[in-house]
Specification:
This protein is α+β, with helices and mostly antiparallel strands. It is built from 30 helices and 20 strands. The chain starts with 9 loop residues before the first helix and ends in a 7-residue tail after the last helix. 47% of the residues are buried. This is DUF403 domain-containing protein.
Length: 838
């Protein structure tokens, strides 16, 4: 050990001012005598090489990396839940290779043990039959899935991905706090942490020879491909959806590993085979990475109330037509009650003691154990034995230590007596601490480390690093990301040169691809509606801006145009009608009444909660975008987030300023999607949604503002809203006339705001999408769009009347329904004849 000598470096002295290990807890940075552990010296030297302001600026690089990547997690304690930026702790946890090798060996041993236990419990059940495990611990566990008992998963393994939460005790040894076998989370966040911290401390990262994470993900992808077992196999990542707290990670991992991100509604089971619904019909799915709790995975055989799962999935597993990581029964071994039996099971099944022992745990369902727990009540924590909630107990044991007071002891004694089979007693865990940067110095904070392993044909592969959760306070139980915890990168240092591992294939081994795989129907649906919501918000804002500008003119004809536009906003559902409430207060001021009414309506459109109002449309667009996060660029995702923030934060600005600001952001977002998205099916559905919505709204505005008796101000308002005034003025020297206006906004295929332009682009995009029809049949969708295009291209301005415009509008709305039926809610009979069904 090297003695701490802060007097030689004032920055170091300032850095460590007041840093003291917490009483009764080990510390990663310091020994109890105040010596710095050798593997931390390079980190301290790097941080102490500059003043605190400079170091904070470097750590700000990591924060920008996290923000620019859109890393977030969902917090449930807000109304409806909200996405929050990922909280990054800037100092990495450093573990030398010599220590890590012991951790890795313990993880491999434990993964092998749990796999053996699962294979027995869902197979011959010898452990229960021979008394090694009480039947109540298994049968009473809600995560024991009887539906999958008696058959072996495809590939023969229940565990493909395993993780364990570790903590270092006061004695300096690592202990397993919890096994993670259901659907281990956090590995995507671990990767983002690495990208952020290595960007902030690049030279330190290089000089310390930090082991790479890519090797683990490479092994994981290869293992999944091997499980799929079919040439050109498809692998999906099954997510509960964007409302899940770690949905960002699901989308990120799907993109990074090249998996298809799917929700339960994307999948269907036909004759025991799992298919994904795509715009090209049903496509077989060969393997699934499950991020959905098992109970919700199949409403037919598991939780009947689930709306997240795949009906028939259990039957597909029985028929061994799909590989699942992890099996539906794997969550059984996560129960705290199982920890009580792990040491004995290791000796029985492996002939070894646990290399990484778990925190001492006693299941209270046995009388002798319960009596022992009661004798040592004051030093133990009482917590639920399974995932079921027990009134008065939290799952992590917070508030469950009996020595608080007599009332607390009596309460816990009552719980123990009433629910002996449902609770366990555990030693109170005092986690070790690691340094955290506070902006000026380092302070110790408790942490827990999650380590991952993946089963490969060559054995278990352990990630060289992990997911580290750090408490914001000195309370070792405050590690939840839901309640203020932070996350740190984990640096495992190497004793020699670090192998450069990448997921990229070797040179010359790359198969050139120009498609991104099959587009799931749900993703196409969300892209389509993202386009429609953004376009609807844009035209609403253009009307708001036009009304505000016209309201400044106290002319009767202008007031009539204003009233027509506000009526349109009400018809769209952007605001409720305020006419009857406003008129009595205005008396007989006929010319100014529409203006005053307009002011009331515009405030409602920008601030209210009506379904057609701007806040609601932006929220709907953001929801659609959140479901297809993996298909949007980082800049596009950020632009949508910025737009959502503006709607909530700009309420003190003037109406025109707000409308202008929102319109500029929507225009930037439209430019990003137009310029940065590949011209594949996803981009086409986004554009189809935009073109369809613009065409429909243009028809509605034309009917409202360009009837045969329309005034010049009404026609001019139509040009304003359709952003066509400059073109009209350049083209026509005379005043604003009805037929030229109608020709420009409805029939001119060179005007990007006209209905004709939208219909032509619609037809072009739809022609490029896959068709699911029988040979020799004319595709109805093609017929519809080509007839629309032919009609709009051959119509003259003199032929345009309200009946023609209304017919065009209704046919466009019918086209929207046809697109939905064809690509988003496909008829199974039609899908079955899709090319490549099997």
């Amino acid at each position: 050990m090297t003695m701490l000598a802060p007097s030689r470096n004032p920055n170091l002295r300032s850095l460590l001012t007041g840093y003291r290990p917490l009483p009764g807890a080990a510390d990663e940075l310091m020994t109890p005598s105040g010596e710095i552990r050798p593997h931390w010296l390079p980190v301290l030297a790097e941080i102490a090489s500059e003043k605190s302001e400079a170091i904070s600026q470097r750590f700000a690089v990591a924060d920008r990396q996290i923000k620019n990547s859109g890393v977030s997690y969902r917090v449930y304690d807000t109304p409806g839940g909200s996405d929050r930026p990922w909280p990054l702790s800037h100092v990495p946890l450093v573990i030398p290779h010599s220590e890590w090798s012991g951790i890795a060996a313990g993880i491999v041993q434990r993964a092998q043990l749990l796999e053996t236990v699962l294979s027995d419990l869902y197979g011959p059940a010898n452990l229960v039959r021979e008394g090694a495990l009480p039947a109540a611990v298994i049968a009473g566990n809600p995560d024991f899935q009887r539906a999958i008992a008696g058959f072996s998963p495809l590939g023969g393994e229940h565990l493909i991905v395993y993780a364990a939460d570790l903590g270092r005790g006061p004695d300096g040894h690592w202990w397993v706090l919890k096994d993670r076998a259901q659907a281990p989370s956090g590995m995507g966040y671990a990767l983002e942490n690495r990208l952020a911290i290595s960007a902030a401390l690049p030279s330190l990262y290089r000089d310390m020879r930090v082991e790479r994470l890519a090797g683990y993900f490479q092994a994981m992808r290869s293992s999944l491909a091997a499980k799929a077992g079919r040439e050109g196999s498809r692998i999906g990542l099954l997510t509960p959806g964007p409302a899940n707290e770690t949905y960002f990670e699901h989308a990120y991992l799907a993109r990074y590993l090249g998996l298809l991100l799917v929700e339960g509604a994307d999948l269907t089971v036909q004759e025991g085979i799992v298919y994904v619904r795509t715009i090209e019909g049903l496509k077989r799915l060969d393997a699934i990475v499950r991020r959905l709790d098992a109970d919700f995975a199949d409403p037919l055989e598991l939780n009947a109330s689930s709306r997240l799962g795949v009906p028939g999935l259990v039957q597909a597993l029985r028929q061994r037509t799909v590989a699942l990581a992890n099996s539906l029964g794997a969550g059984l071994v996560e129960a705290p009650a199982m920890l009580a039996f792990m040491p004995a099971l290791a000796r029985r099944l492996l002939g070894q003691d646990l290399l990484l022992p778990n925190v001492a745990t006693w299941w209270c369902g046995e009388e002798s154990v319960r009596e022992e727990v009661e004798r040592n009540f004051e030093r133990l924590a009482i917590l639920p034995a399974f995932t079921r909630h027990i009134e008065g107990l939290s799952r992590n044991g917070a508030g469950a230590v009996a020595d608080h007071d007599e009332e607390g002891q009596a309460r816990l004694a009552g719980i123990l007596k009433a629910h002996p089979l449902e609770v366990v007693a555990q030693e109170v865990v005092r986690l070790s601490t690691m340094p955290v940067w506070t902006g000026k110095r380092l302070e110790p904070r408790p942490f827990a480390l999650r380590v991952y392993a993946v089963a490969t044909p060559e054995g278990w592969k352990v990630m060289h690093g992990g997911f580290c959760r750090v408490a914001d306070t000195t309370d070792p139980r405050a590690l939840s990301m839901q309640h203020g915890g932070r996350s740190a990168d984990v640096w495992v240092t190497s004793e020699g040169p670090v192998d450069h591992v990448t997921l990229l294939p070797p040179p010359g081994k790359v198969a050139i691809k120009r498609r991104l795989g099959h587009l799931p129907s749900r993703a196409a649906d969300n892209l389509f509606w993202l386009g429609r919501y953004l376009e609807r918000a844009e035209v609403t804002l253009r009307v708001v801006r036009a009304v505000n500008e016209l309201a400044a003119e106290a002319d009767e004809d202008v007031a009539q145009a204003t009233e027509r536009l506000t009526d349109q906003l009400i018809a769209w559902g952007a605001a409720k009608s305020e006419k009857e409430a406003a008129r009595p207060k205005l008396g007989k001021a006929a010319a100014t009444a529409p203006v005053a009414i307009a002011e009331t309506i515009l405030r409602a459109v920008l601030n209210g909660d009506e379904s057609g109002g701007v806040p609601s449309l932006i929220r709907s667009a953001a929801r659609a975008a959140s479901s297809i996060r993996e298909r949007l660029s980082r800049d596009a995702t950020q632009a949508i987030a910025d737009l959502s923030a503006m709607v909530q934060g700009d309420r003190d600005l003037q109406v025109t300023d707000r409308a202008d600001r929102y319109l500029r952001t929507i225009a930037a977002l439209s430019g990003l999607t137009h310029e940065n998205m590949n011209r594949l099916a996803g981009w086409r559905f986004l554009r189809i949604g935009q073109h369809l919505e613009r065409a429909v709204q243009t028809c509605r505005l034309a009917r409202r503002l360009a009837d045969p008796g329309a005034s010049v101000d009404m026609l001019d308002a139509l040009l304003r809203v359709s952003d066509s005034r400059i073109t009209y003025r350049a083209r026509y020297l005379m005043g604003t006339l009805r037929l030229p206006v109608l020709d420009l906004v409805l029939l001119d295929d060179g005007n990007p705001r006209s209905a004709a332009f939208q219909i032509i682009r619609l037809a072009e995009h739809l022609d490029e999408l896959p068709r699911v029809v029988r040979e020799g049949e004319v595709d109805p969708l093609t017929r519809t769009t080509h007839l629309l295009r032919a009609e709009i291209e051959t119509t003259e301005a003199a032929d345009v009347d309200e009946r023609m415009i209304l017919s065009l509008e209704n046919r466009l709305l019918a086209l929207s329904s046809d697109i939905t039926a064809r690509y988003f809610n496909q008829d199974e009979a039609m899908a079955e004849i899709a090319e490549g069904l099997g």
